Amino acid sequence: MNHRLKEIVLAEPRGFCAGVDRAIDIVDRALEKFGSPVYVRHEIVHNTYVVEDLKQRGAIFIEDLADVPEGATLVFSAHGVPKAVEEEATRRGFTVFDATCPLVTKVHVEVAKLHKEGFEFIMIGHKGHPEVEGTMGQLLDGIYLVEDVEDVAKVSPKQTERLAVVTQTTLSVDDAAMISDAVVARFPSIRKPKMQDICYATQNRQDAVKVLSAEVDLVIVVGSPTSSNSNRLRDVAQRSGSPSYMVDSAEELKEEWFAGVTRVGLTAGASAPDILVQQVIARMRALGALSVRTLDGVEETIKFPLPKGLK
After folding, report:
1. Is 299 domain-assigned?
2. 163 by DSSP, 3-state: which?
3. How far apart (Å, rounded) are the C-alpha atoms in residues 156 and 158?
4. Residue 1: what pLDDT?
5. 104 neighbors 169 (Cβ within 8 angstroms)
6. What gap in Å lies between CA 263 and CA 283, rounded to an integer?
7. Could you give the dihedral angle defined by the CA atoms of residues 72, 75, 76 and 78, in that order, rounded to the nearest 10 degrees?
8. What tens digit of pLDDT does each residue of 163-174 get?
9. How confident is the model at residue 2 (pLDDT cuts 50, 70, 90)?
10. Which of 41, 152, 253, 293 has the fewest CB atoms nearer than 10 Å to its CB?
11. Nearest Cα residue to 182 out of 215, 152, 202
């Protein structure tokens, strides 16, 4: 029991974004409508609790479409898929529901449009992340990944007259701006997106963590290790000067983290459900926290419609 721990301060906004809400809803409704099993390519969203819950209800998560039987119902994850995966699913006649976040689809559409005009692309993102594989997989070639400023110096597009930059939607806003500046410095005529590709939810949650860090001695981020946006929240808190830990569940909290801590900040990645936040609050109350308050923040009202056939 920590006698110093007085207050839990919640970031606002935190937790589920519109794209995650929609993706989980798509799997839910597909299960209701078609019964189990419903196959899902990749984790629907990067959260252990969500994935386990859907598995219990009859979702089967696969990475390779070879593991999907004929005539199956298939859902693409919120991160998006390469063109080749879409084409294979169509060819094999699956009933497909695409849970790709509309803000990721927007990037795919932009890539396809500019590619027709002869553009090549520099993509800022994390190698191996499914969103990056999906966006880069919109084209057979002509899209080059940079993960940091050093990569920008090494990238060699075939031409520089028609070059555009695109970004993974869940990066650190500050890092992406720094890498983007390096890209523009090297390729001054490069075309930038009208609106940044980093999504509203990523931006809002990072902004909220900066505000939160200033008020607390420690920041806890609820999120799974595979979740890019959750990892970035922890990074942002640490850069803002707060020690910060990411936990997948309340069980992962360690009592020693709270030694000498009076106020603890709490947030959650865009794929982390509120039930996990509530469990973390309960555990921190057991460790001695007396009160909970929520910071003022942006109110998110955005909603994305469901695909045809599931409404």
Report:
1. no
2. strand
3. 6
4. 75
5. yes
6. 15
7. -170
8. 999 999 999 999
9. confident
10. 293
11. 152
CATH of the domain at 44: 3.40.50.11270
CB 135 within 8 A of CB 100: no
Residues 218-275: tens digit of each pLDDT: 999 999 999 999 999 999 999 999 999 999 999 999 999 999 999 999 999 999 999 9
Both tokens of 248, joined, read 């997948």
pTM passes above 0.70: yes
Q: Which of 186, 220, 248 is the last residue of a domain?
A: 186
Domain around 236: 7-16+200-294
Which residue reads 């449009």 in tokens?
113
Examine the residue annotation and report whether 133 is marked as an active-site residue of this protein. no
pLDDT at 150 over 90: yes
Give me the catalytic one of 12, 110, 131, 133.
Answer: 131
Task: Give yes or no for residue 311 having a pLDDT over 90.
Answer: no
- The gap between the terminal CA atoms of the chain, to the nearest Å, is 49
* Number of domains into which the chain is organized: 3
Count of helix runs (H) and strand runs (E) in the chain: 10, 12
Question: CATH code at 206?
Answer: 3.40.1010.20
